[in-house]
Design brief:
Helix content: 25-40%
CATH topology of the largest domain: Aminopeptidase
Number of helices: 10
CATH architecture of the largest domain: 3-Layer(aba) Sandwich
Radius of gyration: 21 Å
Strand order of the largest sheet: 1-2-12-3-13-16-14-15
Structural class: alpha+beta
Order of helices and strands: HHEEEEEEEHEHEEEHEHEHEHEHEEH
Distance between the termini: 41 Å
Number of strands: 17
Strand content: 25-35%
Largest sheet: 8 strands, mixed
CATH superfamily of the largest domain: Zn peptidases
Shape: globular
């Protein structure tokens, strides 16, 4: 990614702590940048950030990427100062023990580690089992409950203490590309569109609480009431060991954005997306999804009397781990494709099923 300002923004977004329900800091960063090339920007009571271009356009398009991430929440502090927690969103229990985490508190960030009984002391049957959440705890190095409660409150949230790192070439890893990269794509698309002439009114939304039930997309889509809704998310790359392409499809890192097809997707939206990719020589991949997707596209489609919906995704390895891996070239091409699609839209296009 040649644009250093954009790359730095992506890094900052990834490293901002924002589990579902606690997205305010990330939403603020997104809004501060996106307002530079939007006609106006606002936030709704749920916390969704909404930027608008060409508000009086003939067709209303909503493009949405969720800005929340998975994480942990403080539930209980015992007399020795150990902290017990629940998960926020779908965390892989195999990966929890031994993590360093950052707890976001009223006094700032507190570093902790997730502890468990050492392997040497486990019974033979315990070694083969995944540790349950109530068998794990967070140790922040305090001596007792009083010291812990001086720093930590019930309901504080935490994330793995990792950030954005470069690998080889255009490959990068981070804690929360799912789906801060989608929110980034929305912002970057608005940046380029701000220099274009187009017929549609475009509403770019950084949605909240996707990881706990697609909640922010439901409320923001109701408020925006779009004619067309495009969710931008990540999807499973299948180009690593152990993936069964017969079940999961053939999706590669570096082969371009992924256009979804299936009952959650309006057929005309799909066709126009493919046409835009071909016309502009943008590499793309197709993913067949035979039911409602587990993305914001699901609830956007079902808003009010229905919305012509699409889903555009960045291929990603190791989803919902601290080492999610993407290609920056895929991100750039996702922005290009979303922009090209929007430039094709006018009031003459019908999205009614044929």
């Amino acid at each position: 990614m040649e644009d250093k300002e954009s790359l730095n923004f992506l890094k900052e977004l990834i490293e901002t702590i924002s589990p579902s329900g606690y997205e305010a800091d990330a939403a603020r960063k997104w809004s501060d940048r996106t307002k530079k090339f939007s006609d106006k920007i606002k936030k709704d009571v749920h916390g969704n950030s909404i930027a608008v271009l060409n508000e009086k356009g003939s067709v209303k398009i909503m493009i949405a990427g969720h800005i929340d991430e998975i994480g942990y929440m403080v539930k209980y502090i015992d007399k020795e100062g150990y902290i017990y927690f629940s998960t926020v969103g779908g965390i892989d229990a195999h990966l929890i023990p031994g993590q360093r985490i950052i707890i976001k508190t009223r006094k700032g960030k507190v570093l902790g580690v997730i502890g468990k009984k050492p392997v040497h002391l486990l019974e033979e049957g315990e070694r083969a089992k995944v540790a349950k959440i109530d068998q794990l705890w967070v140790d922040i190095g305090v001596k007792n409950e009083k010291e812990a409660k001086n720093l930590i409150d019930i309901g504080d949230i935490a994330v793995p203490a990792v950030g954005f790192e470069d690998l080889i070439d255009d490959r990068v890893i981070g804690r929360a590309f799912d789906d801060k990269v989608g929110a980034f794509v929305v912002s970057e698309t608005l940046k380029f569109l701000s220099k274009d002439k187009f017929k549609a009114a475009v509403y770019g939304v950084a949605t909240v609480q996707e990881e706990i039930g697609l909640r922010g997309a439901k409320t923001s889509a109701y408020g925006v009431s779009p004619d067309i809704g495009i969710a931008i998310d990540v999807t499973f790359a299948t180009d690593f060991p152990g993936m069964d392409k017969k079940k999961a499809g053939d999706i590669k890192i570096g082969a371009g954005p992924v256009i979804a097809r299936g009952p959650n997707i309006n057929p005309k939206v799909f066709d126009l997306m493919v046409q835009a990719a071909k016309k502009n020589k943008i590499p793309y991949q197709i993913e067949g999804v035979s039911r409602g997707t587990g993305t914001d596209a699901n609830v956007i489609q079902l808003t009010k009397a229905g919305v012509a919906t699409g889903l555009l995704s960045v291929p990603l390895r190791y989803m919902h781990t601290p080492v999610e891996l993407i290609s920056l070239e895929d991100v750039i091409n996702t922005v290009k494709l979303l922009r090209a699609f929007i430039l094709k839209i006018d009031e003459k296009i019908s999205f009614l099923p044929e």
